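ok so i was messing around last nite and threw this chain in just to see what happens. nothing serious, just curious
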Amino acid sequence: MAQILYVHGSGHTNEAFAEQATAFPGSDAISLPGHPHGTALGDVSEMASWLAKYARFRAAVPAIACGNSLGSAIAIEWALANPSEVSGLVLIGSGARLRVGKQIFDMIDKRWPECIDELVDLSVAPQCGADLRGLIRGWHLVVGQATTRQDYAACDRFDEIERVGEITVPTLVIVGAHDRMTPPKYAAFLNERIANSVLTTIDGAGHLPHLEQPKAVNAAIRAWLAGLS
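result:
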């Protein structure tokens, strides 16, 4: 089985996929440059090129790319740019286009770090506990204002509406039932356009189901992997 490479979302670190990295031995949760170490990259295509180089260096190709939000955009871009290096995709809280509302940029620009709690609220289901909210808040603080804003700007520029149907590798699309950042209709679009795809909706989760409901997400990934073999 190919190695799974996990790529986190905006303002997060590799700790976002700690539950999955533990559940699937040999997989690798990655921190993007600038999260917090190094210099953050400017757009999704640069990040996808960096991920491809990382995977080649680690002799992990072909790999299964699993990403959340920004990380899912990176996974999609890598699969489109280098299809022979990606044997499967797991897209969590994803879309073929990831527009970001002006209010989010205004929050980051004018009310950092006070706005972090609001960013967390937008990302999780109402029943999400205080401990997890605090963990996510801590990642934003560590990653910082500039890189978090740059992440959201990269998402806002990402648009593969016209090309996502070119993806042919097996794909698992996962969406939280209460996702307000990339609503379930985004996941349905991916499922319609990617021929070899499966759609799973996770109850009790928002934009971060891998964090909010890790057991359900891990079970979905495990069942999908079993189908591949």
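not much to say yet. DSSP finds ten helices and six strands in the chain.
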